[in-house]
Structures are given as C-alpha cells and as structure tokens.
Amino acid sequence: MMSYTAWIISIGNELLIGKTVNTNAAWLARKLTLLGYDVRRIITVPDNEEDEVEVFRDAIRRGVRVVISTGGLGPTFDDRTSEYLAKALNRKYVINDDALRLVIETFKSRGLELTEPRLKQAKMPEGARPLPNPVGTAPGIWVEEGNTVIIALPGVPAEMMAYSRTTWSLNYVR
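The structure corresponding to this sequence follows.
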C-alpha cells in the first residue's frame, strides 16, 4: 500500500504561549496514521501573515499530499487563516457562494444576527470548497494546489473532531 505524506499545521498564539494544550494535533496525527498517512510534520505557528503564508507555501513546494490546518477560521479579528491561505496560493480572497449559504443557514437556524465579522466566515481562496461545520459556525475549507490538498478546519476541538463524522473523508484524497 502506498503511503501519502501529511502535515498538520496548528495555528494560534494561545498554543505557542502554553495557554492552550494542542490536543488537535495529537488527535489528527492519530487519525491520519490510522488511515495510512505518513505524518511528517506537526507545526505550530502564530496568528500572523508571514508565518502562515510561509508554512502553507513550504508544504506545497515540498509536494506534501495532505495538509490539515486547525485554527483561525472564526469571526474574530485575529482569525485570518482563510485570507492568509489565499495569499499563500496567490488566489483572490472572495465570498464563496456555497459558504455564504452555509453561514446564513447556520446563523438563521440559531436565531442569531448576521454581522460583518460573521459574514467573513464565508470568504475563502478562489476555487476552494467549503466544508459544512456540523457543530460550529465557520465552514472548513478544502482547496487543491497542484498535487497538494489543503484542508483548513476550525481550532475548537469539538468542531475540528466533528468533521471526521461528516460526508467528506480523507479517504477521498487518495
């Protein structure tokens, strides 16, 4: 059986200062390994443009088959992973119609107002596919660049783990 390479990128200042324990990386590494992936890197970067752009570009340049990032997809001012991913891919950062529909439905079903920061969760790199969030509000992102599949997931552990029970699967990457 052929093994595919994988990197896990954890994004957040709270992880680097020890405020939050990075349970997502361990959970993803275990899951990927069980699926037959060869996890080659677990990288933690701060919430900043330079580091996020650099690590995504490095993974693509090295031909990593699957990159899964966690964190930075929410409505707060420092949640900018989607924007930085667009920059790393040299793509436009646009409102994705499918993501917009998901975001509107999510907030409407919860009786919550659709504010500008919440709408930001519908923006992603041009050509990306939104992944419905079964627990939270920010859709995940599936985008392909060359032979690399990048999957950006929310950083909240319950949200990140909930994606493993949805209709898409890492098995489709192969």
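Strands lie at 4-11, 37-45, 66-70, 93-95, 123-125, 129-131, 140-145, 148-153.
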